[in-house]
Write a structure and sequence with these properties.
Blueprint lengths: L6 H17 L4 H9 L8 E3 L25 E7 L19 H5 L4 E3 L6 E4 L2 E5 L6 E6 L13 H14 L2 H6 L3 E8 L2 E6 L7 H4 L8 H4 L18 E7 L3 E6 L19 E7 L2 H9 L5 E3 L3 H6 L4 H4 L3 E7 L6 E6 L9 H8 L4 H7 L6 E2 L17 H8 L8 H4 L12 H15 L2 E4 L2 E4 L7 E6 L5 H12 L4 E6 L2 H9 L5 E6 L8 H6 L18 H11 L4 H17 L3 E3 L1 E2 L2 E7 L2 E2 L15 E2 L2
Parallel strand pairs: 2-11, 18-19, 18-20
Antiparallel strand pairs: 1-4, 3-4, 5-6, 6-8, 7-8, 9-10, 10-11, 12-23, 13-23, 14-20, 14-21, 15-22, 16-17, 24-25
Helix pairs in contact: 11-15, 13-20, 19-20
C-alpha cells in the first residue's frame, strides 16, 4: 500500500540493509524487521490497497453538496414490532432505528466512492508501518461527547474492551487479531496485532463506535434499556414513545460539523422514526404525507402503487437511482446445522424447485436479474471456469473440492427452454435418489431410515409468502413436505440469533473490499456463536482457509482473485437457493427533500440529503 512515508529515507535504508544481507552481515529476516521498525508518518487517511483518493486538507467528499442548508424534519417509517433498547451493540433486545448511526461517531469515516478508504474523524490521523503490524490513532483534542466531556484514549480503550467482551459476538470476531492496547497519551492510543497479514485492521478498527467510559462507569452495559445514552455523534435522542417512535435532534454545537468528512452531511434538525406493523399500512401512510422517504423493496408496489396526482404533479418523486456496489446474496438459506440439510446433494436438489423465471414474470414485473454470486454486481464475482491466479488458488484444495468446481461453471437453475420446471424437477429427483432418498406413498423419504424429507420456512414478512408458497408447491410435487411459519419480528430476530430454524430468507450484504467480516459469515468458529451471521452454518476447512486468504490479501488484484475463489467454493456448497438482485435503489420521496447531483458508487445515502428551506 502506498502511503506518505519519507521515500528518500526508506530507499536509503533498504539499500543499506540489502547490501548487508547480500554480504551475510544481516539476515533477510532482520532486514524486514528493521525496516518495519521505522516510525511511520502520520497520515490523514488510508486506503485498503493503494493510495486514498482524497489528499490531506481536502474540503469535502466529491459526492456531497457542501452548501446543503441545515434545518427541517425528516420523517421516516420502520416496519417492525417496535423496539425495547437504545443499545445497538448487544445481542439482547431490539434497538431503536438509527441509534447507532446518529448517536455515535467512529475514529475514522469511510468514503462512499472508493472500494475501501477511511479518513480521520475522532482520530485526526493514524500511523501504521508498511507491514501493518500495529496502528496508532492520534485523537483530535476538539473531539467531545454530547455532554461536553472530551473524547480520550481511555474512552477508545474502554469502547474496544466493552464491545469485544460484553457486546455482540460480531465485535469479538471482527477484532480478534488485536493482541495489545497501549495508551501513549490522553490523545494517542496504539493497537498491536498478533499477525501482520490481516491488513485491514487499521481501517476496521477505525469503524469502531466510541462510547463514553465515564457514562458507563456506574451502569451495566447491555441493561440500559430505554434510558437515552450519552453518545459522540451528530444527534441525540430528543424524545420517544416506547416501541412506537423515536425522535433525534441535531446538535447545533456538534464538535465535528466543520470537518471535511462531515461537511454537507447530517443536515436535518430532527429525524423522526415511526413504527408500523404492516408494510401496506406504511405505504399508504407515506402517500398521505405521514413520512417523507421510502425505499421500496417490493417490485409489485414499485410497478403499481406509486401513481396518482401527487406523483403526476411532482409532489412525490419516484426515482430508481443506479448504484455500483456489490448486491450480495439474497436467497432461501439452508441451516446446515439441521440434519435434513447436512447433505449438499439434498441442498442442490432443492434449488431446482425454485422457478425464478415464473416468479420474476408473475410477481416482480420482470424487474430483477438472477443472482449467481455472493458478490454479484462487482468484479469480485466468480464467472465462467476458474483460470489464472484463481485456478492456482483452488488447485491447492482440489482433493477436498468436487470436480464440478473446475469443469462446470456455476449457474443457478433456470426454467427457460423446452423442459422448463418439469426438467428441473426431474434433475432434482435424480439428485435426491443419489443422496439416498426415494418416494413412498407419495412422500420423499430416506431409503434406509424411512425418515420423511420435510422442513419449515421461517418468515416475518407476510408479503414474502407469495414467493415461498409457489416454491413449497413445487417441492410438494417431489413429495417434500414444507410448512411455512410466520412470526412477529421480535420472535424472528430471537430465533435467527439462536439458529432455531430450518430455512429462512436472508440477504447477505457485501462490500467492495471484503475482509474480516467474512469470518462472521462463513468461518467455522462462528457456527455455534449465537447471534453470528453464519446463517447457513458453514463449517468447511477449505472455506476457513479461503476466508483467511481474503483477509490477508496484500493488494487489490490478489483480493479479487482470492474472493472469486471463495465465492466459487461457497456457490458449489449450495448453502442457499439464490434469489435475485437489482443494481438500483428504488426510492420515493416528497419533493421538499433534495439530494446531491452525484451519486457515489455505494448508492443512495439519506445522510447526504437535505430539506428545501
Amino acid at each position: 500500500m502506498t502511503k506518505t512515508y519519507n521515500i528518500s529515507r526508506l530507499t536509503s535504508l533498504f539499500s543499506f540493509l540489502g547490501l548487508l544481507a547480500a554480504t551475510g552481515l544481516v539476515s533477510a529476516k532482520d532486514q524486514a524487521t528493521d525496516a518495519s521498525n521505522l516510525a511511520p508518518d502520520a497520515v490523514h487517511g488510508m486506503a485498503m490497497h493503494g493510495a486514498p483518493k482524497y489528499p490531506e486538507g481536502f474540503s469535502h467528499f466529491d459526492y456531497i453538496n457542501a452548501e446543503a442548508p441545515k434545518g427541517g424534519t425528516l420523517k421516516m417509517a420502520v416496519v417492525a414490532n417496535g423496539f425495547d433498547s437504545f443499545n445497538p451493540f448487544v445481542i439482547r433486545g431490539v434497538a431503536a432505528a438509527g441509534v447507532n448511526n446518529y448517536l455515535y461517531d467512529t475514529l475514522l469515516e469511510y468514503s462512499a466512492d472508493e472500494p475501501f478508504s477511511m479518513y480521520g474523524l475522532i482520530a485526526e490521523s493514524l500511523e501504521t508501518p508498511e507491514d501493518r503490524s500495529y496502528v496508532t490513532y492520534n485523537l483530535r483534542q476538539s473531539a467531545r461527547f454530547q455532554d461536553g466531556e472530551p473524547i480520550t484514549a481511555e474512552d477508545v480503550k474502554f469502547s474496544f474492551e466493552t464491545l469485544t467482551t460484553k457486546g455482540h459476538p460480531f465485535y469479538r470476531n471482527y477484532y480478534a487479531d488485536v493482541s495489545k492496547i497501549t495508551i501513549e497519551s490522553p490523545h494517542r492510543i496504539r493497537f498491536d496485532f498478533q499477525q501482520t497479514s490481516n491488513r485491514e485492521l487499521p481501517l476496521i478498527l477505525g469503524q469502531m463506535p466510541i462510547l463514553p467510559a465515564h457514562y458507563w462507569e456506574d451502569r451495566e452495559f447491555g441493561k440500559n434499556g430505554l434510558t437515552p445514552p450519552v453518545g459522540s455523534g451528530a444527534y441525540r435522542i430528543d424524545s420517544f414513545e416506547a416501541g412506537r417512535s423515536v425522535v433525534y435532534e441535531r446538535l447545533k454545537d456538534y464538535w465535528a460539523k466543520d470537518l471535511a468528512v462531515r461537511k454537507g452531511r447530517f443536515n436535518f434538525d430532527n429525524i423522526r422514526y415511526d413504527y408500523y406493523t404492516d408494510d401496506t399500512v406504511a405505504l399508504e401512510a407515506f402517500k398521505a404525507g405521514s413520512f417523507d422517504f421510502r425505499v421500496e423493496t417490493s417490485a409489485k408496489n414499485w410497478a403499481t402503487a406509486y401513481s396518482g396526482d401527487k406523483f403526476d404533479n411532482g409532489t412525490i418523486i419516484k426515482e430508481a437511482i443506479e448504484h455500483h456496489r456489490p448486491t450480495g446474496m439474497q436467497g432461501f438459506v439452508f441451516n446446515t446445522r439441521k440434519h435434513v440439510f447436512s447433505d449438499p446433494k439434498v441442498r442442490e436438489a432443492l434449488t431446482y424447485a425454485f422457478d425464478f423465471e415464473w416468479t420474476n414474470k408473475n410477481l416482480f414485473y420482470g424487474q430483477y436479474a438472477r443472482t449467481n454470486s455472493y458478490f454479484e454486481n462487482s468484479e469480485l464475482a466468480a464467472t465462467g471456469l476458474p483460470t489464472g491466479r484463481e485456478l492456482e488458488i483452488l488447485e491447492k484444495y482440489r482433493d477436498q473440492l468436487g470436480e464440478d468446481i473446475f469443469t462446470k461453471p456455476f449457474e443457478a437453475p433456470s426454467t427457460d427452454g423446452k423442459q422448463g420446471l418439469r426438467g428441473n424437477l426431474r434433475t432434482a429427483m435424480e439428485l435426491l435418489r443419489s443422496a439416498g432418498y426415494e418416494v413412498r406413498d407419495g412422500k420423499m423419504v430416506h431409503a434406509k431410515t424411512g425418515s420423511p424429507l420435510k422442513f419449515e420456512v421461517l418468515l416475518f414478512q407476510k408479503t414474502f409468502e407469495r414467493v415461498v408458497l409457489p416454491f413449497k408447491n413445487n417441492l410438494a410435487r417431489l413429495g417434500i413436505d414444507v410448512s411455512v411459519r410466520l412470526v412477529d419480528s421480535n420472535q424472528y430476530v430471537q430465533r435467527v440469533r439462536e439458529f432455531d430454524y430450518d430455512m429462512i430468507t436472508q440477504a447477505i450484504g457485501q462490500s467492495d473490499s471484503p475482509g474480516n467480516e467474512q469470518r462472521e459469515y462463513w468461518h467455522s468458529s462462528t457456527v455455534d456463536a449465537n447471534g453470528s451471521r453464519n446463517y447457513a452454518g458453514v463449517n468447511d476447512p477449505v472455506v476457513d482457509e479461503l476466508v483467511n486468504l481474503v483477509i490477508q490479501a496484500p493488494d487489490r488484484e490478489e483480493l479479487v482473485q482470492r474472493t472469486r475463489a471463495l465465492d466459487r467454493v461457497l456457490l458449489q456448497g449450495h448453502y442457499v437457493v439464490p434469489h435475485w438482485h437489482l443494481a438500483k435503489d428504488r426510492v420515493a420521496y416528497w419533493s421538499h427533500l433534495k439530494h446531491p447531483e452525484k451519486t457515489p458508487k455505494n448508492g443512495t445515502d439519506l445522510d447526504d440529503w437535505w430539506a428545501e428551506p
